[in-house]
Every structure is written in C-alpha cells, then in structure tokens.
C-alpha cells in the first residue's frame, strides 16, 4: 500500500548500474581473453540471468560484492556445451545477444525464459542469423522459445534491419565477430550503441557510419576494466517523480548520458521540467552526470520518429508525466512497445485509467490529456518492472490508497527501487 506524498520527495539517490551495459560487460568479458573486472554492475534479476547462462557455458564469473564482478574470459572459441537449459528469465537482451554469441559455437544449446519471454518475437534475430548459416529451431518456426541453436561456420552479411533495435543489431554484430568476412547492419533509426562502444573498449575495431555499423570477423577481445554508469532508464522514474510530486527536489547521481539513451531528457525539457546537470564526465566511453530535478509545471507535447528508440523504455513513465501536463501529449511510432515484457501500450493505458487518467491507446502509441488528478486503486505491474515502477510513482500523487500487485517485478532492473522511493519520502 502506498500513500499520497504530503511533503514532496527530497534527497539524493545514487542510480544503480545500467542494465544494458551490465549485460554486455559480462557477455563480452566471457568471450574475451583474460580477466574483466566490472565496477558498478547492476545486480538486477535480468543481469543475474546473464551471469547464470554464461556460467552454464563454462565461464568462471565471480561476484566480488553486489556491484563488482570478475569474469575470467575463455576467448571466442572457449565456451563449452551446456549440460543444462540456458534460462534467460525475463530478459530479452540476454536471449537475443546470447543467440548472436552462440552463432559460431559448434555445439547444441537450448534457450528458455519465463512466460513473458515465451511471447516475445525472436524471428527478428533468428532470420538474419539463419542467413549467416546458423541452425536455429524453435516454436513457430523459430519465432518463440524454447529455442535450440547449433552454431557453425558463419558468413558475414549486409543486413538492413526492419526495426531500430539494439538487441537485433548487437546479435548480428556478435555473430559477425566470428564470421567469415565483414558484417554490416543498417538500422532505420539509431538504437542504443553500447555494443559498439564496449566492443571498442575490448579492443575490437567497429566501423560506425551514421545508421550503418560494420565489423570484420576474426577479431579477438581483450579483457578490460568496465565502469558501469547509472541507468538513465531507472533514473527516469525519479526524474518524473521529482517533476510531478509537489514540493520535490531530487538529485540523481552518476546517471548515464549516452546520447542514444537521453531522449527522456529532451522530452522532459520540452515539457518544461526544471533539470540541472552537474559533475559531467563527458570523455568516458559511457558519459555520465548528476541531475537535479525540481517540481515543475509541465505541458503536453508530441513524441515520435527517431526520438522513440532513444526513450523506448521510458514511455510508461513519460505517459504518467503527461497525465500531469497541461494539454495533449501524443506518443506515436512506438509499436515496439507491444513486444516488450508486456504489451506496454495496453498495460500503461489500463493501469493509468484505473487511477483516473484520461488516456487512450492508438495503433502505435497513446494519447493522453492532462492535467488530471489521479486516485488510488488496486493496480498491477503485470510482471513488468517498468509498469510496477510507473504505478508506484503514480501512487505518490494519487488521492487515497493504491495497492500494487506483483510489485516484486521491479527487481528485474531496479532491486532497490522501493527503498529509494521511501528514502525520498521524509
Ligand atoms: O540492447 C539493449 O540492451 C536493449 C534494447 C532495447 O530493446 P530493443 O532492442 O528490442 O529495442 C530496450 O528496450 C531494452 O530494454 C534493452
Ligand atoms: C524491454 C526491456 O528489457 P529486455 O528487452 O531486455 O527484456 C526493458 O528493460 O524495459
């Protein structure tokens, strides 16, 4: 049960490690030569699934403490045939990137996940990998888990991706790392580029030319030290909370500022939020900064086009912000939301409506009219971490009690979320 926050949200939060970067640091460390030490790792359920899969592939991975991980790399050819199923849990990033890494392994692997993963489309990765000669089988012609992969000798491809997806791009590039010749992926819009940046940190030459990324096969990765910045997708919940809860002032430390991820900042700025940036570290492989947010008067805006991949995971919390903005907010070009942990167009619209929002679903997004007072109700995360955190922030401004079902889902990307929220309610 959550209560309306009476005195505003006040304080400083160190944002936990970036999920996308944490996954990649373990995966790339596993296929590198030598040791990789990861600092600022996110011990969220999804990243723990990645660790567990790579341990089953024979990699020695040690949690030194909650946020420090040591990976003893086995090199590109060093993975071992797993004796057990590779269970990715709830994590789309784990299964799709893993498929790329397994593309050249001359053994058999079986991949499964939870109920949500079983509904998420894998053809977007299966298709290009098959073009590279990988043997993949699975339900509905390889579109859904359980999936079975037997890697082989792959050949590079020149692939035009129909979707702006970092998971698709990364899977193909990782397969291309071991393929004959060059592999090129061209996207319709720029998706997050953590794979490109991190492969370079591991000593791999990656060519980036606008929306086109190329990699030559046969390059080895060298173990390295990875510093994971805070996850802007996690910070987003407190950025919006600080803006919409009256009398708030929140400082978020060490938030990742990779430009392929900062669409939420552009949107909040355009909506009129007061944000201040300090301690900027712009020269890192993954830049970061501290962000202060104060209660702000927001206005509705239109969000679509190339901005969507730069804020795709933030749309649930942006929808909540829009309920507190004057005027209409239109979110379009975001049909990808339908294939996330839940159909996030439907879950956002249904849960926010239960709390009194004026919001309707469209084919590729939603239309929200504000500003609307919210009221408490029984709502659910539906097992989707981002929906759980969004309704928890909504409960801070709702009149009366809110009951959140399946709130434990937040541990997928932000295990300390409720502790941090309580910490701010002084
Ligand atoms: O590559 C990644 O780490 C991710 C890419 C995005 O998915 P898509 O590649 O499906 O767009 C994002 O929604 C997901 O949370 C993490
Ligand atoms: C979509 C997400 O993750 P994944 O695709 O890795 O399950 C997310 O974290 O919002």
Automatic annotation (TrEMBL):
Pathway: Metabolic intermediate biosynthesis; chorismate biosynthesis; chorismate from D-erythrose 4-phosphate and phosphoenolpyruvate: step 6/7. It is found in: Cytoplasm. 3-phosphoshikimate binds at residues 19-20, 24, 165, 167, 313, 340. Residues 7-421 form the Enolpyruvate transferase domain. Its EC number is 2.5.1.19. It catalyses: 3-phosphoshikimate + phosphoenolpyruvate = 5-O-(1-carboxyvinyl)-3-phosphoshikimate + phosphate. Its main location: cytoplasm. One of its GO terms (molecular function) is 3-phosphoshikimate 1-carboxyvinyltransferase activity. Phosphoenolpyruvate binds at residues 19, 92, 120, 167, 344, 386. The active site is at 313 (proton acceptor). Keywords: Amino-acid biosynthesis, Aromatic amino acid biosynthesis, Cytoplasm, Transferase. Catalyzes the transfer of the enolpyruvyl moiety of phosphoenolpyruvate (PEP) to the 5-hydroxyl of shikimate-3-phosphate (S3P) to produce enolpyruvyl shikimate-3-phosphate and inorganic phosphate. Belongs to the EPSP synthase family. Monomer. PANTHER family: AROM/DEHYDROQUINATE SYNTHASE, PENTAFUNCTIONAL AROM POLYPEPTIDE. NCBIfam families: aroA. This is 3-phosphoshikimate 1-carboxyvinyltransferase. The lineage of its organism: Bacteria, Bacillati, Bacillota, Bacilli, Bacillales.
């Amino acid at each position: 049960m959550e209560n309306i926050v009476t005195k505003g949200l006040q304080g400083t939060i160190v944002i936990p490690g970036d999920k996308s970067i944490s996954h990649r640091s373990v995966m790339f460390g596993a296929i590198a030569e030598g040791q990789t030490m990861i600092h600022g790792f996110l011990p969220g359920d999804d990243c723990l699934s990645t660790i567990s899969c790579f341990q089953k592939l024979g990699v020695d991975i040690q949690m030194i403490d909650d946020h420090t991980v040591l990976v003893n790399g086995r090199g590109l050819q060093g993975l071992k045939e797993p004796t057990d199923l590779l269970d990715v849990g709830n994590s789309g990033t784990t299964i799709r990137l893993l498929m790329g890494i397994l593309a050249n392994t001359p053994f058999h692997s079986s991949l499964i996940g939870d109920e949500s993963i079983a509904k998420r489309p894998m053809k977007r990765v299966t298709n290009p990998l098959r073009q590279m000669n990988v043997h993949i089988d699975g339900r509905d012609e390889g579109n859904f888990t359980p999936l079975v992969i037997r890697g082989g000798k792959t050949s590079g491809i020149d692939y035009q991706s129909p979707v702006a997806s970092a998971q698709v791009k990364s899977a193909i590039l990782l397969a291309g790392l071991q393929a004959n010749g060059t592999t090129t992926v061209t996207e319709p819009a720029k998706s997050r580029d953590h794979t490109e940046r991190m492969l370079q940190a591991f000593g791999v030459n990656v060519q980036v030319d606008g929306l086109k990324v190329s990699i030559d096969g046969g390059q080895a990765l060298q173990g390295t030290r990875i510093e994971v910045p805070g996850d802007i997708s996690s910070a987003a919940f407190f950025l919006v909370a600080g803006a919409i809860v009256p009398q708030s002032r929140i400082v978020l430390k060490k938030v990742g500022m990779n430009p392929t991820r900062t669409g939420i900042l552009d949107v909040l700025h355009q909506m009129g939020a007061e944000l201040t940036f300090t301690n900027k570290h712009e020269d890192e492989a993954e830049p970061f900064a501290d962000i202060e947010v104060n209660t702000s008067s927001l206005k509705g805006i239109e969000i679509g086009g190339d901005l969507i991949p730069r804020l795709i995971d933030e749309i649930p919390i942006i929808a909540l912000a829009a309920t507190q903005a004057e005027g209409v907010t239109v979110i379009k070009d975001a049909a990808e939301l339908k294939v996330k942990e839940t159909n996030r167009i439907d879950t956002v619209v249904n849960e926010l409506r239960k709390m009194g929002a004026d919001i309707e679903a469209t084919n590729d997004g939603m239309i929200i009219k504000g500003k609307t007072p919210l009221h408490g109700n029984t709502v659910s995360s539906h097992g989707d971490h981002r929906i759980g955190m969004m309704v928890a922030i909504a409960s801070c401004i709702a009149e009366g009690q809110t009951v959140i079902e399946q709130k434990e889902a937040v541990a997928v990307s932000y295990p300390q979320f409720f502790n941090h929220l309580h910490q701010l309610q002084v």
